[in-house]
Design goal:
heterodimer; A: 117 residues; mainly alpha; 77% helix; B: 153 residues; 0% strand
Chain lengths: 117, 153
């Protein structure tokens, strides 16, 4: 069942952003990705996005709103452990692995692969 | 005088005809394609998430591993040139998942490599990913600050 909801919720988030993109042609994909990331981060301040992840799994986690929510999740967890320092150490707690992996793999790809066309 | 009027009328008719015949972007079709492509990527992500959930000690670490794994998929598909086709097909359905974030990093790194490694590849790699990380950290820190203060300390 979680696979069904992962597909539906993930698809709905993407379709919603696509509709916003069609109706507001002035917004670039960059603006939309930033907006969605911030939305996820703020929603998780109330724990709402974690509830959505519990319900839809990767359908909520894989869109960039899940990336934003993971930043907030790290901050909340670390502030409970460390106090104010957690506001700074927590940000990359869960997404740091992804960012570092992205930089490393993207560099490797740029070294070995040549763009088409 | 009369001929001018006819010309103006003709130009207006022509403009109206062009407006009628220009294909409007079919919003429902584009949204449906974004739904299918984005949903499929999330479905793949669910298999990865489940795989890590049984192998990582906490859910947080499973989330981190899943994000990194999907980023790896995005990079590989971009390097193979497959992700561009996926973007053509799915629009935002390919851009919104974290694989699209990896695609933006990788395609910029590949395209700008010829402008040098420092100011080309490394700088342009963050042309889309940079704003996402900056605003993500700003929003996450501020939200965390509010929640921490509200949490009674």
């Amino acid at each position: 069942m979680i696979y069904f909801w992962a597909f539906v919720i993930g698809g709905l988030i993407c379709a919603l952003v696509e509709l916003i993109y069609i109706h507001f042609p002035r917004l670039t994909p960059g603006h939309l990705l930033v907006g969605l990331t911030v939305t996820g981060a703020v929603l998780n301040g109330f724990g709402w996005y974690d509830a959505l992840i519990k319900f839809a799994g990767a359908g909520a986690l894989i869109p960039v709103s899940g990336f934003g929510a993971s930043i907030t999740r790290g901050v909340l967890q670390e502030t409970q452990k460390l106090g104010w320092e957690g506001l700074f150490t927590g940000t990359l707690e869960f997404v740091g692995l992804g960012i570092a992996a992205g930089v490393l793999f993207a560099t490797l790809a740029a070294l070995v692969s040549v763009p088409k066309g | 005088m009369d001929r001018d009027q006819t010309a103006i009328q003709g130009a207006k008719d022509y403009q109206r005809l062009v407006q009628q015949l220009t294909p409007k972007p079919n919003a429902a079709l584009l949204a449906a394609r974004a739904f299918v492509v984005g949903g499929t990527i999330c479905l793949v992500g669910q298999f990865v998430f489940d795989w890590f959930r049984f192998r990582q000690p906490t859910e947080g670490e499973a989330i981190a591993a899943t994000l990194a794994c999907m980023i790896l998929f995005g990079v590989v598909l971009t390097a193979l040139g497959v992700y561009d086709d996926l973007g053509q097909l799915g629009g935002m359905g390919a851009a919104v998942p974290i694989t699209g974030f990896a695609n933006a990093m990788t395609s910029a790194a590949m395209d700008f490599r010829r402008e040098g490694f420092v100011l080309g590849m490394a700088a342009k790699m963050f042309i889309i990913a940079g704003p996402v990380i900056v605003f993500g950290i700003l929003a996450g820190t501020l939200t965390g600050l509010v929640a921490w203060l509200a949490g009674g300390r």
